[in-house]
Design a protein that fits this description.
single chain; 361 residues; alpha/beta; Aspartate Aminotransferase, domain 2; Aspartate Aminotransferase, domain 1; seven-stranded mixed beta sheet; two-stranded parallel ribbon
Amino acid sequence: MKRIHNFNAGPAALPLPVLERAQREFIDFEGTGMSLLEHSHRGKAYDNVHNEAIALLRELMGISEDYHVLFLQGGASLQFCMIPMNLVPKGGSADYVLTGTWAKKALQEAERLGVGRLAGTSEKDGVFPRIPKQGDLDLDGNAAYLHITTNNTIAGTQYHDFPDPGSVPLVADMSSDILWRPIDVSKFGLLYAGAQKNIGPSGVAVVVVRKDLVDGARTDLPNFLRYSIHASKNSLYNTANTFGIYMIRNVAAYLKELGGLGKVEEMNRAKAKLLYDMIENNSDFYRCPIDPESRSMMNVVFRLPTEELEKKFIADGLAAGLNGLKGHRSVGGCRASIYNAVPMAAVEALVAFMGEFQKKA
């Protein structure tokens, strides 16, 4: 078996031990004579997995009993509308900070519902080179919440300090950097993440939401769009993505075995430093267009002197076993997504390739 280095932005790399565990258990799950994919979502075998996944996320992230942990479908994109539908009262509005493509999509959904308000942006000439500072924000003290996107996969920016929302709840899309480091969950009213970058495979969204917000949410919605319904059924209102949640359980267990999120952060910072140092030390050839204080630890974007060289870099990289180095089609350039599951060896291989490519260019 030959595995290449995976720098895809999402669906993204999964830890090899997690994949190997799934491989071992795929046909016969825990001696039941069936794959977990064949088990009922109401059965004991799956129920144990489901609840263990929740318990492990609570332990890793320090999530108190003041919060629900939900597994929902529709990805982060469904949350773009579920959040305002549930949390914004009639006649109210919510604040949004615009830091990239996905933040823009979240704001657009709120605007379609007539409740989205732009509270700040870092957009400049169509790009987002930095994260807005607190002083850049125009906050409404009567807003239902302040929404941010903590890491911007396309732009290559990341919040390293979260904004102060004042008296309103802070809501965060953490799809591309959840579990990369410890955070204080109590600072948030709601946080959510599509699983396919740092938590597991595609098809599941994790939502961590304060119970009082759920209790006070609107009830004039279809049942499937109500947090209270999903919370009351422990995310089993309908048939859950059982295998996706099983994989989340396995990823969470793996991160716990590594030593928890403190150890994960240490590893992530080391990987990012190695790659950013390579770019900075060779700035006559490689260039990162992002302000240093806003650079992402998860998605490293960079440019080469010409688009022709970038195309060759991406093609030669793939031939060398380095997959997923093409920047998003909306911005071009190159991008290396170095999520939790991307090992240091992959980043070392990328840095070595960058050095050799520069010499030959």
